[in-house]
Amino acid sequence: MSLRRNRLLPVCAAVCAVALTACSGSGGTGGSSEGKGEGGGAGGVVSLAEAKGVLRAYVKVNNAANATQDAEKTATVESGALLSQSQASFQQYPAWTKKEQADSEVPFSYPVADAHFYIPPKGSAEFFMVDTRITGASIDKDRRRLLAFKQVVDETAKSGKTWKAVAVGEITDGLPAVAEDGDGFVTPVAATDKVGSVKAGDLMGLSQDFYVTGGRKAAGTFTDTDSVKAWKKAYANRASFKDDCVDGSYEAGAGGADAAYGVKTEDGGALVLYDFGFVYKNWTKAECPGSELHLDDLPVVTKIYLNGRTTILNLTRTESVIAMAVVPPSGKKVRVTGYQEQLTYAQ
After folding, report:
1. What is the mean pLDDT of residues 4-33?
2. CA-based nearest residue to 89, from 70, 108, 63
3. Residue 8 has what pLDDT?
4. Among the listed residues 276, 280, 274, the one whose alpha carbon sits nearest the alpha carbon of residue 260
5. Higher pLDDT residue, 240 or 213?
6. How much helix, strand and coil, in percent to the nearest 5, is found in the chain?
7. CA atoms within 13 A on the CB side of 65
8. Rounded CA gap, 221 and 330, in Å?
9. Quick one: pLDDT band at residue 155, thresholds 50, 70, 90?
10. Separation of alpha carbons 341 and 11, rounded Å
11. DSSP letter at 187?
12. pLDDT tens digits, residue range 87-114?
């Protein structure tokens, strides 16, 4: 059997932080939601004091878990796609460079003092969002993130439920103003809720469409942000290899939760965090019998998932993506402001 040395570039090598280019800055409606859920009105899904405690606990446990790559500890504060990505990164840790390993262990903080908490009224949702700075060694000044926390079943908790982080987006350019009622609560947008012509949950399948077809269905809904351009480029380059014996294609896959969490903005649109997945397949063409894929440039795949093998006839990689989007009131020209992509499995 002959060996063809094909250079298969990874869809995502480690945590893919460079893909996290979400637009949105320190923002919201201004202020840190003081008074929300603390008397007056109908109350929120969580009190402000409890929400602050959730954020503090998340940072503490996350830092401890990152220091030792403890997936079980992370599972106590994360769920859904975010947990799937974290667990995958811990599994892949041994194949990372020393610098990547060291960077992943640097402690970080989400300062509560100037964080903006977006809390829906009680009974309207089981999640809340936080716009917060992220600080720590080697972390750029004024860097911010948007996080979604969901109340999930937890048999170890006294109430039977606990709050866990389920999605995150990087903020780089200013969030649209989030709508608040007279008591300071926000209007949640669930996956089944429509914003103009599109449901929040539709963003998942439409985003997958960029990988699977290049955007035949999705092009009319989204505007060409850097994120969307990157997705289109991935489709265009799906079979772009120096060796003509290699082929490739994308298929829809699971992202870890396939969920969407959103809040209404003042203009009638929405700010949404959502996840989706895709499968990337490579194989040798029929007209090249006896050939194999050579994977010496995919250390995570070969060391972690293929038990050290560097050649294979067919390669399948599963990726999880968490994206952030600003949806206009019309539901058209949706702006995907950034995304976080993570390899979760290969075979």
Report:
1. 33
2. 70
3. 36
4. 274
5. 213
6. 25, 30, 45
7. 21
8. 10
9. low
10. 9
11. P
12. 999 999 999 999 999 999 999 999 999 9
Strands 198-199 and 314-327: unpaired
| pLDDT over threshold 90, residue 165 | yes
The C-alpha atoms of residue 227 and residue 233 are separated, in whole angstroms, by 10
pLDDT in tens, 279-307: 999 999 888 877 889 898 899 999 999 99
One DSSP character per residue, 189-212 reads E-TT-EETTEETTHHHHHHHHHHH
Task: Work out the pLDDT band at 29, boundaries 50, 70, 90.
Answer: very low
pLDDT at position 207 is 98
- What average pLDDT does the structure give for the chain? 87
Cα(297)–Cα(74) distance, rounded to whole angstroms?
30
Closest to 233 in 3D by CA, of 22, 9, 13: 9
Q: Which residue has the tokens 């006839």?
A: 313
Instruction: Identify the three-state secondary structure at position 134.
Output: coil
**Cβ pair 292, 301 in contact under 8 A:** no
What is the spatial distance between Cα 281 and Cα 294, in angstroms, rounded to a whole number? 14
CB 341 within 8 A of CB 84: no
Closest among 180, 172, 164, 75 to 121, alpha carbons compared: 180
**Lateral strand order in the sheet of 116-118:** 116-118, 127-133, 144-153, 161-171
Closest Cα to residue 186, out of 288, 280, 106, 117?
117
What is d(CA 282, CA 7) in angstroms, rounded to the nearest whole number? 11
Contact between 282 and 257 (Cβ < 8 Å):
no
pLDDT tens across 32-51, in order? 444 444 333 469 999 999 99
